[in-house]
Amino acid sequence: MSINYDTLRKLQDVLAQVFVIEDKIKDIPRDLYDGESVLQQIKIDYLDLSAKRDQIKQELDELNEKYTNAVKDREEKESSMVQATLVRESESTEKAINEARATEQTLFKSRNAKQKYLTELEEKLEVQAEIVKAKEEEVAEDRQKKDALIEEQQKILDELLKEREELSQNLPSNLIFKFERIIRNKGGVGVVPLHGIICQGCFMELPQQFANTVRRNEDINFCPYCSRILFYEESEEDASLDAVVHGDVHDEEIDEELSGGDDVGVVDSDDNLFE
Ligand SMILES: [Zn+2]
Fold it and tell me: How far is CA 21 from CA 16, 153, 166, 242, in A?
């Protein structure tokens, strides 16, 4: 049984893309939520201002009524002045008229001030309404854009998941599980070559015995340091490895093992891992 690392490499590429897109989709609603909470606050501000406007409007109505009454009161007093015949009578009426005029003046001023305040509030409200409207449009547009973006990403993801399904078909589920975790944790790279006795994922030196095992390619081997799946790949480091094997530890058995591993790395056109 030899192992097809091409399938694993293809699966690795697919999985790395799946993780990127899954993260992207996860981030999208969070951005949208920010916009909506801002809109919520703007609406609350608008309602507060609107309540204030209603209150001032009511106060103005009351002042208007008081002012109208004060004007009527003063006019009545003025007309009674015309009818007054006695000096004493006319003196007290004049005093009352002056008082009525003062009251009228005071009410006139505070009514005008209130009217001015109301006008200011109404202008502010108008601006605030524009802001709410603009933000609402922005959020709606954002939502639409993001829905389209999610849909687009979801389409790509569905394709990738289909590919993952196909590539995983003949792999043991515990291997897939482990492989996915490695790819997620190791920046998208879960299967790396072994050059000589050096793992090309973490560049640690592995024990000679283990390197030989990888070279034999009879089973899936994980780097003991970085957990990535290792496959043998011919390299310059093999020269020094061969020197060690053929020089110091010349051994028929090792020779056999190594020659057995020589046809390893030739990948069948079949996409399945085990053949
Ligand atoms: Zn390693």
Answer: 9, 7, 19, 44
Any idea of the CA torsion for 92, 93, 99, 102, to the nearest 10 degrees? -140
Residue 266 pLDDT: 37
Residue ranges of domains in the chain, CATH in brackets? 17-168 (1.10.287.1490), 173-260 (1.10.287.1490)
Question: So what's the pLDDT on residue 248?
Answer: 45
| Rounded-to-integer distance, Cα 224 and Cα 211, Å | 11
Specify the range with the lowest mean pLDDT, choosing from 154-158, 207-211, 226-230, 249-253: 249-253
User: Ligand 1 centroid vs 223 CA: distance in angstroms?
Assistant: 5
Cα of 107 vs centre of ligand 1, distance in Å, is 89
Q: Of 16-30, 126-140, 145-159, 160-174, where does mean pLDDT reach its minimum?
A: 16-30
CB 19, CB 187: distance < 8 Å: no
What is the overall mean pLDDT for the chain? 85
Quote the ligand 1 centre to 180 CA distance (angstroms): 16
Cα of 192 to ligand 1 centre, how many Å?
8
Spatial CA neighbour of 3 closest among 269, 211, 267, 186: 267
At 257 the pLDDT is: 44
**If you measure from the C-alpha of residue 226 to the centroid of ligand 1, how many angstroms do you get, rounded to a whole number?**
4
| pLDDT value at residue 28 | 81
CA of 246 to the centre of ligand 1 (A): 26
Residue 248 CA to residue 269 CA, distance in Å, equals 39
Map tokens 């547009």 to a residue: 141
Output the CA 218–ligand 1 centroid distance in Å: 19
Rounded Cα gap, residues 190 and 217, in angstroms: 17
pLDDT at 268: 38
Q: Which residue has the tokens 């524009």?
A: 130
Beta bridge mates, 191: 229
